[in-house]
Amino acid sequence: MVALFAIWKAASAVAGNVVEITYLEVQTQRPAVLSTLERRPDDVGHAGAQVGLNDINATGAFLGQVYSLRSVTVSGDEDPVQAASELLGRTGILVLDAPAEVLTAIADLPAAETALLFNASSGDMSLRNDACRSNLLHTVPSTAMRTDALAQFLLSKQYTDLVMISGAHAKDQAYTYNIKRSLRKFGLKLQAEKVWDFNSDMRRSAAQDVPLFTQDFADYDMLIVADEWHDFGRYLLYNTWQARPVAGSEGLTAVTWSPVIENWGAVQLQRRFEKLAGRGMTSEDYAAWAALRTIGEAVSRTGSSNLIDLRTYILSEDFEIAGFKGRPLTFRNWNGQLRQPIALAHERALVATAPLEGFMHQSNTLDSLGFDRPESTCTAFQ
Amino acid sequence: MKLIKIFCLLFSSGASAGEVWVTNEKDNTVSVISTETLEVVNTYATGERPRGITFSEDFSRLYISTSDRNVIQVMDPETGEVLHELPSGEDPGQIVLHPNNRHLYIANEDDATTTIVDVDTREVIARISVGIEPEGMAVSPNGKVAVTTSESANIVHWIDTETQEIFANSLVDNRPRHAAFKADGTELWVSSEIGGTITILDTGSQTEKAKIEFEIPGVEPEFLMPVGFGFAKGDTHAFVALSRANHVAVVNAETYLVEDYILVGRRVWHLTGTARFCLRPMVYRGT
């Protein structure tokens, strides 16, 4: 519980100090996918940060605090670490959309030593373990948190006879690794698995190819698909030999956020976001928003903009943010991961929210998702 | 089955044959329930998405905020007829009537505004910018101070009812939902749903006087989410709905100690007593 309490008379108005925050997107080469209609909005993440900024500035107006946000995008042919180094000369708070190896390189910069960095994009497991950095907090869930959520759902539904199709990309392989880890954690296992290596145009031939490809799975409860770039997975639905549901990267997905979430006051956040961005709020937007809210919460409760004070407070037991997920969100003090419920949703509706009822934990049921204290090999936070 | 989300309820009188009036957010109606038979005795149509509800001092008028119609409807409780509408600003949520029986304070949840409307002239007399997602509304018993709680900013805004301006802001725990003054006006109680606490603020200094936390063996601490609450007669006790904990806490309002937890239905959301006349709370839950 929060022990701090403060009161400001409205007359004190705005203080001189502005808390400066930079959102940095490092663009990466995205593989081509089958659907030509697949389009990623340019402002993914940026818009979430902007809504977060508006939120904390609205609060700051009453408490005498002002925040500013600079949105920067580094294209593929620029050096993202150099760009981050230059930005760190101006502001100590960076919210980052970048691959894992870029995140650690930025965190290792001399200029980042006292900085407050937020990973708002990468679910990479190493960042929560061996490759963790004490100045890098994660508002995006690890992939393990998402696959643990799916495994809890499978177990609670007694979908225990499972098969899997994985794509060939590194991101697909990482997802598959996490799925297997999660299934093992909850006492489940795959009955069969296949790698997707078709080159044909599924938009025309899915109805012929997919039944044949899935025929030798025999009977099963659910098909898990690892297709993190959203390439072939969508063509598996309704085309499998057996009439069975699909989960994983397509069908029933375990996500940070989704435009279909409306419980716990979420409609208000969804409306604020849509008004600003003209589209639905994605998981990346949510992670960026959560980073901004974390900064705002720490500044308003401590009354300080000193980055060391903020980090100490963020990792303390007093810190919590309300994230429209029905319970307080806090940081794991062993690896800097934001604890949060994971939504199990399809395109049109929320199906369940993990942790599911019955999955117990000795201190916080949210720690049944992802790398719990005894599992994490991160030592940078000790 | 009809999908009815109960948003707010109140008693029309404290006498034995009382009535509970409940707005049905997804059904566009108000239900009237007899406290004697516990049966619905009347259902009246309202505008779209009725939420906040309050009676005039003499119970001759019922004010209902209709959030998707963006007005306050004024109903004759004898007939259920909507007599006229008052301007409310966008997305009116909780409403509270000033003791002068004229000024209605309205939380505009999606618009970060508190609107004050004169129910006699039917005109807006002030619009006050507040934090994001204003939710709880209360007016002090002497009428000098009104408060709005901003759910997303975690702030209690103190409004001078003479000037209709904010004169102080108090930071409380996460997601403040409901606010109520004690009958003697010395204390403002504010529930924080995500923070899991009730903060008691001194009305004179607007500073924290005490904080109440909750604990039920076997219930996850994070599920102890205080939302609606109400005081018993004489302000000896407060009854606090604890949402996902499925309990109502009985708090001694003098010692601030929790004396009991009463098991109720799932996700208990709000409660009211028979106009502060008895110790038995009526509890209801949303769908």
Describe the structure.
The complex is a heterodimer of chains A (382) and B (287). With 382 residues, chain A is of the alpha/beta class. Chain A has 9 helices and 15 strands. Chain A has helices at residues 46-63, 80-88, 100-107, 143-156, 170-185, 202-215, 266-277, 283-302, 307-314; strands spanning 7-9, 18-26, 66-74, 93-97, 116-119, 136-138, 162-166, 190-195, 222-226, 246-248, 253-255, 321-322, 328-329, 342-345, 350-354. The radius of gyration of chain A is 21 Å and the shape is globular. Chain B is mainly beta and 287 residues long. Chain B is built from no helices and 26 strands. Chain B has strands spanning 6-11, 19-24, 29-34, 40-45, 50-55, 62-66, 71-76, 81-87, 92-97, 103-108, 113-118, 123-129, 134-139, 145-150, 155-160, 165-171, 176-181, 187-192, 197-202, 208-213, 229-231, 237-241, 247-252, 258-263, 268-272, 282-285. In chain B, a hairpin with a 5-residue loop joins β23 (247-252) and β24 (258-263). Mean pLDDT of chain B is 89; it is low at 1-5 and 275-282. At the A-B interface, β1, α1, α7 and β12 of A face β16 and β20 of B.
- Helix percent of chain B reads under 10%
Q: Using the alpha-carbon principal axes, give the shape of chain B.
A: globular
Give the helices and strands of chain B as they follow along the chain.
EEEEEEEEEEEEEEEEEEEEEEEEEE
Radius of gyration of chain A: 21 Å
What is the N-to-C order of secondary-structure elements of chain A (H for helix, E for strand)?
EEHEHEHEEHEHEHEEEHHHEEEE
**Poorly predicted tracts of residues of chain B:** 1-5, 275-282
Overall SS class of chain B: mainly beta
Strand order of the largest sheet of chain B: 1-2-3-4
Mean pLDDT of chain A comes to 92
- Amount of beta strand of chain A: 15-25%
Strand order of the largest sheet of chain A: 3-2-4-5-6
| Overall SS class of chain A | alpha/beta
State the shape of chain A.
globular
Overall strand count of chain A: 15
